[in-house]
From TrEMBL:
It comes from Psychroserpens luteus. Keywords: Signal. This is T9SS type A sorting domain-containing protein. Residues 1-19 form the signal peptide. It holds the Pfam family Por_Secre_tail. InterPro entries: Secre_tail. Transmembrane segments: none annotated. Residues 248-311 form the Secretion system C-terminal sorting domain.
Length: 313
């Protein structure tokens, strides 16, 4: 098992509101070769007024059907300071940030810190000239999210043991937005991050599927936009955040719109190891007595229950 290095891409035609769309990159809508110009897709500029041509529709791998999108390094350039090489989609009509759901099937090259890239799956508001949020998979094997950590915008590095992956195997990644700037990220339906986006209340004007041109490749198939329901109903994402502080050995819970009632923490064998009553909108759970490992926390509020996964280390 190795850590994720991943991405995806986007959709094709939006009209008004949060339209539903699934793109499988199949013929006749798509043809093999350069993705630039196909159904509104563009690629990174080549510095001479044109665009790079090796971000392609490929028949090498697919999660369903015959085709997928493949991104690879551009030989004309060296390694970049940021993931700026890849395929982008500019929406004709911005996608509302409210209750938006994006998912895709991903297939990634074998991870190697000496030969692969950082990859970004990112949402941009071009009017503001800023990322709304992104998920970044680094050449060192870390996964990070551009988000608001409660004190301002920051890049939050996630515990990599929660997000191992098998190279050269398809998996699914899903990102959900809610009103007020909430975000939740899933890998194969397991939540790996819940919090607030870096630039809240901003509609998605562009999607970026890119890398920093150091090596490796990634495929994406079956990209869905608003073609799946949010994973939660009453318990809105923007009403709850959690963060494990490795220095203090505390799990911090924050629910500004709902009072916290109780938290139950279970180990990987299903044994309940902590049962704590709470009150108010914020609390911290002391975990120093627990062994290092993976735990599930079931958080009960006045308006719903949410289960989260975290690493105590």
């Amino acid at each position: 098992m190795k850590k994720i290095t991943l991405l995806f891409l986007m959709l094709l035609a939006f009209t008004f509101g949060n339209a539903q769309e699934t793109i499988s990159f199949e013929a006749p809508a798509y043809t093999l070769g350069d993705v630039y110009g196909q159904n509104g897709w563009t690629t990174t500029g080549d510095g001479a007024g044109g665009f790079i041509t090796n971000q392609v529709i490929s028949d090498e791998q697919s999660s369903d059907g015959s085709y997928s999108v493949k991104i690879v390094p551009e030989a004309a350039f060296g390694g970049q300071d940021a993931p700026v090489v890849g395929a982008f989609y500019d929406y004709a009509t911005p996608v509302s940030y409210v209750d938006a759901v994006f998912s895709a099937d991903l297939y990634l090259d074998t991870f190697d810190s000496s030969t692969t890239s950082d990859f970004i799956f990112g949402f941009v508001n071009l009017t503001d000239g800023a990322y709304i949020t992104y998920v970044r998979f680094t050449y060192t094997g870390d996964i990070s999210v551009l988000a608001d950590d409660g004190t301002g915008t920051d890049t939050i590095i996630l515990d990599d043991t929660l997000t191992d992956w098998t190279p050269l195997t398809w998996f699914n990644l899903r990102t959900e937005f809610t009103a007020g700037g909430g975000i939740e990220v899933f890998i194969d339906d397991v939540s790996i991050y819940t919090g607030l986006v870096a630039t809240p209340n901003s509609d998605v004007e562009q999607f970026r599927f890119s890398h920093d041109n150091y090596g490796g490749f990634a495929h994406m198939d079956n990209f869905r936009t608003n073609d799946e329901e949010l994973s939660i109903a009453e318990f809105d994402l923007n009403s709850f955040t959690h963060f494990y502080n490795n220095n203090t050995k505390q799990l911090k819970l924050n629910s500004p719109q709902n009072n916290l009632n109780n938290v139950e923490i279970y180990d990987v064998l299903g044994k309940r190891v902590i049962n704590k009553n709470m009150s108010g909108n914020e609390d911290s759970i002391e975990l120093s007595t627990l062994k290092n490992g993976i735990y599930l926390a079931r958080v009960n509020t006045e308006n719903g229950t949410k289960t989260i996964k975290f690493i105590k280390s």
